[in-house]
Amino acid sequence: MQAGRIDLWASGKQLGSWQFKKFKINNIAPVFTIKNSVLYAAFNLETSDEVINKSNKINKEIHEDGTYLKIQKNY
Question: Which is deepest, 26, 32, 54, 73, by most CB within 10 Å?
Answer without folding.
Answer: 54
